[in-house]
């Protein structure tokens, strides 16, 4: 039987009491103390609502209306598919009201998304840096892996510039940074504050307090041993802007994705940060009593004080920026092509999003007579610190790489669909908002499911995807070849991508297999996938789109670690316009659709001679695979990009 929304859950969702609202009354209290007072201690969660059981009862119209009454939708109106997923998400809260890492009444909300980014890691961080320097009160940032890199240098430079600007205004800024750092201390206390001498040292390379005199910064780490990783990646600035992203803070060859959010949904992410931080904040947050839902919007407003350090200024439309991808590409080859990029040690900040888009597109445009593919190859090699040679002749006009995707500033329904960290080795912590959102969209889609993720092997997806294909849904998913394969081969970790997709195809008839399309990530300058072990072209995007209009984007992979152990933060939206631009950006910025299609027999990629990609992990039965996995599991927990 389907779990129902209980009276208790509905009351929690309709209550005005949240962690952030209580903190506003007394900012000296630790958020964890507030959470325990309002919602009680954490309880054990159970199994997901279904293994795609055909007999599962569908939520009634009355059920859906009751669920929708639990959200704060403003002038927006969620559609049926979104409502069904939202209903199923709320059913998780009876066992643990904070299983979604946000106060229940803030799960359902609305907002705008003026910008999405699908690009190499460092290009996402360039936008983060621009948003940081424009901060007026506070910066809250949570991420997973952290190591000295171009990404860290960009953020550190931005903090120094932010301190300079704040000093010119006679103001102070509060900054809180938290990331995953497993240590023996976390066996006894999951949160550990980091000393300035440590976080300003060679292992972290953030600025020392002496270098940012107008910023009050705290840095903390979180890990729930052994497997409860802080895998969330998001930033909240001035309680007006939030960025939800897929990337870690390191150098790697990953293609990544992020979204820039504004409006009331920012209050939800602010609340999530408080719950994630958990400890008392010293000093308190300046915006503790100024929620986003009363503060308006303003992504495209210029920063009025201490403008960009660079002397060159991009040309762009001055109004809201819903430029098409082709317009952006065309402008990158004309008057904006010589804009100096924002780089570590060479700051060229922009005053608003349209300016950022123009400067970024210039980096992808041909220079000095080079071809389009040469320009892309040079940029991808620079960002990945590799020397891969292009294997396609060129990129056609109309198919240019466009990393920054502008959206109209329309209000759309949004919801946070996340999960808390779970340390124990068992995969029992499954009945959580993130997983239910994924399962519900797959279960209730009427035409199509699209997924991109590094790995897809979570146990509950096998039956869910199989059932969707059997009932006539076209399922397409893009995965990365060889991503963390040794770790995925451990017992309980789900197996490699090749192993999992072979199981899917095995359960389908020949006719049904035509509706399951597995593709392997192929870089924009390549004609075939490159195995992850070469560290040249890999993909770390995490996205699911159902029926072309409901999408989930964030930090959550479709693998065992993200489904059952890591803390994740994802946003679900209901917008055909945004989902359409996401798909366009995904196809423009990689060649996975054109060159990465796997076999309709078992999903595995092979060339015209039947050969797999060099470096592909060969099949190996236990115990050989377990030995490889034992080595790989340690690598997955430690290495850069491991999560």
UniProtKB/TrEMBL annotation:
<protein>
    <submittedName>
        <fullName>IQ calmodulin-binding motif protein</fullName>
    </submittedName>
</protein>
<dbReference type="GO" id="GO:0032049">
    <property type="term" value="P:cardiolipin biosynthetic process"/>
</dbReference>
<feature type="domain" description="PLD phosphodiesterase">
    <location>
        <begin position="226"/>
        <end position="253"/>
    </location>
</feature>
<dbReference type="InterPro" id="IPR025202">
    <property type="entry name" value="PLD-like_dom"/>
</dbReference>
<dbReference type="GO" id="GO:0030572">
    <property type="term" value="F:phosphatidyltransferase activity"/>
</dbReference>
<dbReference type="Pfam" id="PF13091">
    <property type="entry name" value="PLDc_2"/>
</dbReference>
<dbReference type="InterPro" id="IPR001736">
    <property type="entry name" value="PLipase_D/transphosphatidylase"/>
</dbReference>
């Amino acid at each position: 039987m389907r779990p129902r929304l209980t009276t208790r859950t509905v009351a929690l969702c309709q209550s005005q009491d949240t962690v952030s609202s209580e903190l506003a009354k007394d900012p000296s209290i630790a958020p964890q103390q507030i959470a325990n007072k309002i919602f009680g201690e954490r309880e054990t969660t159970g199994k997901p609502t279904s293994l795609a059981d055909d007999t599962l009862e569908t939520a009634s119209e009355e059920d859906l209306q009751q669920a929708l009454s639990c959200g704060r939708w403003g002038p927006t109106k969620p559609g049926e598919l979104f409502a069904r997923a939202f209903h199923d998400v709320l059913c998780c809260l009876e066992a643990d009201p904070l299983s979604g890492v946000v106060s229940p009444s803030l799960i359902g909300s609305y907002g705008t998304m003026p910008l999405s980014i699908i690009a190499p890691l460092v290009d996402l961080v360039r936008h983060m840096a621009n948003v940081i320097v424009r901060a007026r009160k506070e910066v809250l940032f949570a991420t997973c892996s952290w190591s000295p890199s171009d990404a860290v240098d960009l953020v550190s430079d931005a903090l120094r510039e932010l301190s300079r600007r704040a000093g010119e205004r006679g103001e102070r800024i509060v900054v809180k940074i938290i990331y995953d750092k497993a240590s023996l201390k976390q066996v006894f206390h999951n949160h550990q504050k980091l000393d300035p001498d440590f976080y300003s040292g060679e292992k972290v390379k953030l600025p020392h307090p002496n270098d940012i005199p107008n910023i009050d910064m705290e840095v903390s780490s979180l890990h729930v041993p052994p497997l409860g990783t802080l895998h969330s990646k998001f930033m909240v600035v001035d309680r007006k802007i939030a960025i939800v992203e897929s990337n870690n803070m390191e150098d790697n060859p990953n293609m990544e994705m992020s979204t820039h959010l504004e409006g009331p949904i920012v209050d939800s992410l602010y609340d999530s940060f408080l719950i994630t931080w958990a400890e008392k904040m010293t000093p308190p947050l300046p915006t503790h009593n100024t929620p986003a839902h009363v503060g308006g919007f303003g992504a495209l407003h210029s920063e009025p004080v201490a403008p960009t350090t660079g002397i060159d200024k991009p040309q762009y439309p001055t109004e809201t920026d819903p430029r098409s991808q082709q317009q952006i590409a065309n402008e990158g080859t004309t008057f904006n092509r010589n804009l100096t990029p924002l780089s570590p040690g060479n700051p060229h900040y922009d005053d608003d999003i349209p300016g950022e888009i123009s400067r970024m597109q210039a980096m992808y445009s041909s220079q000095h007579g080079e071809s389009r593919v040469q320009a892309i190859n040079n940029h991808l090699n620079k960002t990945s610190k590799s020397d891969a040679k292009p294997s396609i002749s060129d990129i056609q006009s109309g198919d240019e790489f466009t990393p920054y995707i502008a959206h109209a500033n329309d209000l759309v329904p949004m919801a946070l669909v996340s999960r808390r960290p779970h340390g124990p080795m068992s995969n029992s912590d499954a009945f959580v908002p993130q997983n239910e959102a994924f399962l519900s969209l797959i279960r209730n889609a009427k035409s199509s499911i699209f997924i991109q993720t590094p790995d897809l092997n979570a146990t509950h997806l096998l039956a869910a995807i199989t059932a969707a294909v059997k009932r006539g849904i076209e399922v397409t998913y893009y995965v990365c070849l060889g991503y963390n394969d040794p770790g995925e081969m451990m017992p309980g970790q789900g197996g490699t991508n090749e192993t999992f997709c072979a199981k899917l195809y095995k359960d389908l008839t020949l006719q049904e297999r035509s509706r399951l399309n597995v593709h392997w990530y192929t870089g924009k300058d390549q004609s075939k996938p490159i195995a992850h072990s070469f560290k040249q072209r890999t993909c770390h995007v995490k996205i699911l789109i159902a029926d072309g209009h409901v999408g989930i984007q964030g930090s959550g992979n479709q693998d065992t670690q993200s489904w059952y152990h890591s803390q994740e933060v994802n946003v679900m939206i209901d917008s055909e316009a945004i989902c359409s631009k996401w798909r366009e950006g995904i196809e423009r910025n990689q060649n996975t659709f054109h060159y990465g299609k796997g076999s309709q027999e078992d999903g595995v990629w092979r060339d015209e001679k039947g050969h797999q990609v060099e470096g592909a992990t060969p099949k190996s039965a236990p115990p050989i695979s377990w030995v490889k996995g034992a080595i790989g599991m340690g690598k997955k927990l430690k290495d850069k990009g491991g999560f």
